[in-house]
Structures are given as structure tokens and as C-alpha cells.
């Protein structure tokens, strides 16, 4: 299972969350405590919004803790809205194209979890990606497929409904093939202003996901960044946290 964080708020240096906290994301890349494995060393990525509408990306295949370039960049780049992700592969290759976050125009997305039996229905799943978006797909992960599926389901018009349709489609394809392995997922999607964070599982074991709003800043993380968990709130299973410009607007159930 991967670990990730999403930030929206005042402009800060990326290092304030990637490196400085007690249980920073880079620390989690070696010592995760709420994941199947403690080490997330199959690549990493950061995506941030700056002076342009489209986000900047830096993704690498080496472990986050072993890339001095990441530390240099994080100490120089300031952003009011950014994603960061450390990867633990569930079977696909360790390549730059398979590292999160993924981006399309001004949208960005990242994922943690597993799509049970993915290889058994990969082709019909990918049929839900439009030709326009399929040409932009560079990697081989289920995560990237889920990201591009969202556009076909109306991400730009109604993101929460698109997320619902994505979950329903995956679980329908699994049921049609009698796949009993679970679909477990946390996912973050943003257009640079609005943020949507999903926590879901088809069984009782949804991956961990927390959020904290403090002094105008919103942080959504796989695991709290501090040993003291005061102020950190769990996103309920099968819900989507919706925020706009760092303000949490609602936490919506996937069930209509």
C-alpha cells in the first residue's frame, strides 16, 4: 500500500510536510505504521500548482528517502496546493510513468490501494477510458486507469458522481467475473482549487485516510504527520471529502 498527502492552504515550502514533521511523508516511505508494508520504496512523486494553470510534476523511481534532488526541490518550491506520493507497487513495474501523481491538463490525481483481480478485467475496465484520454496514458497501473476513467464519467461536471460511477463500475466488473479479492482505495483528485478525497473498500478494511484543518490549512494524509493524533479526523469509509480553497465543504457518502 502506498502513502500520500494532499495540501491546500497558505503558500508553504513543500519540505514543511514532506520532510519536517515527526512522521513526515518521507519518514512514512520507510516507516509506515498503518499499511500492509512499512516500506514504500518503489518510486515517488510530487505535483504542485504554481504560476501556471497546469501543475508541475517531479516523479522518480528511486526511494523518496534516497533522492537528494527531492530534498533540494522541496526546500525551494512554494505552493498553496500540492500532492505528494510514495509508492509500494502491487505488481506493476517500477517506472517513472507508474509513479503518482498523474495529471491531465489542470487536473491531478493519485491513489493508494488495490483493485482485486485487476488483470482478469483490465481490458474491459480500460474500455471506460475515452480515446482522447487513453492516448495520454503512459503507464500500466490500475491507479492511472481509474484516474482517466473519471473523465468519461463526468469528472469535470460532477466530480463526486464521477467517483461514484468509477467505484460502481469496478465492483460490477469484479462481480461479473466472480472476483472475491477486494477493491480497496483512497484517492485524491484536484483541479487546482477543488479537492476530492475518497476512502472506500468493498470489504471492511478500507485503507487509512485522515484530514486536519488548522489555521486555514487543510492536510489530507494516509497517516497523521505527528505522533500526537489530536486534531486528525478519519475520513469515514465509503465517503468523499470535498474541499474548496482549503475549506472542507462536506463529506459525502458514496451511497445516494
Describe this structure in words.
- This protein has 256 residues and is of the alpha+beta class.
- It has a single domain (3-253), classed as Aminohydrolase, N-terminal nucleophile (Ntn) domain (Glutamine Phosphoribosylpyrophosphate, subunit 1, domain 1, 4-Layer Sandwich).
- The chain is 22% helix and 32% strand.
- The longest helix is centred in the middle third of the chain and has 18 residues, at 159-176.
- It is globular, with a radius of gyration of 17 Å.
- The two termini are 28 Å apart.
- InterPro entries: EgtC-like, Gamma-glu_amide_hydrolase, GATase_2_dom, Ntn_hydrolases_N.
Q: Could you give the count of β-strands?
A: 13
Average pLDDT works out at 96
CATH topology name, in short, is Glutamine Phosphoribosylpyrophosphate, subunit 1, domain 1
Which blocks of ≥5 consecutive residues have pLDDT under 50? none
Distance between the termini: 28 Å
Shape: globular
Total number of distinct structural domains: 1
- CATH class, named Alpha Beta
By CATH, the superfamily comes out as: Aminohydrolase, N-terminal nucleophile (Ntn) domain
Amino acid at each position: 500500500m502506498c502513502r500520500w498527502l494532499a495540501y491546500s492552504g497558505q503558500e508553504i515550502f513543500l519540505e514543511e510536510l514532506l520532510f519536517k514533521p515527526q512522521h513526515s511523508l518521507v519518514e512514512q516511505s520507510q516507516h509506515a505504521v498503518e499499511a500492509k508494508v512499512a516500506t514504500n520504496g518503489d518510486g515517488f512523486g510530487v505535483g504542485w500548482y504554481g504560476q501556471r494553470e497546469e501543475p508541475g510534476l517531479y516523479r522518480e523511481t528511486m526511494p523518496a528517502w534516497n533522492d537528494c534532488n527531492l530534498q533540494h526541490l522541496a526546500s525551494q518550491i512554494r505552493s498553496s496546493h500540492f500532492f505528494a506520493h510514495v509508492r509500494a507497487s502491487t505488481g506493476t513495474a517500477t517506472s517513472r510513468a507508474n509513479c503518482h501523481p498523474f495529471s491531465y491538463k489542470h487536473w491531478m490525481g493519485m491513489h493508494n490501494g488495490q483493485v482485486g483481480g485487476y488483470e482478469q478485467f483490465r481490458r474491459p475496465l480500460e474500455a471506460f477510458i475515452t480515446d482522447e484520454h487513453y492516448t495520454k496514458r503512459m503507464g500500466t497501473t490500475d491507479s492511472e486507469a481509474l484516474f482517466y476513467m473519471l473523465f468519461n464519467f463526468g469528472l469535470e461536471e460532477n466530480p463526486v458522481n464521477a467517483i461514484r460511477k468509477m467505484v460502481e463500475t469496478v465492483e460490477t466488473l469484479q462481480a461479473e467475473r466472480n472476483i472475491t479479492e477486494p477493491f480497496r482505495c483512497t484517492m485524491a483528485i484536484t483541479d487546482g482549487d477543488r479537492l476530492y478525497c475518497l476512502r472506500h473498500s468493498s470489504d471492511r478494511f478500507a485503507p487509512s485516510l485522515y484530514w486536519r484543518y488548522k489555521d486555514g490549512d487543510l492536510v489530507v494524509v494516509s497517516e497523521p504527520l505527528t505522533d500526537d493524533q489530536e486534531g486528525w479526523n478519519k475520513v469515514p469509509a465509503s465517503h468523499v471529502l470535498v474541499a474548496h480553497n482549503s475549506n472542507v465543504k462536506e463529506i459525502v457518502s458514496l451511497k445516494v
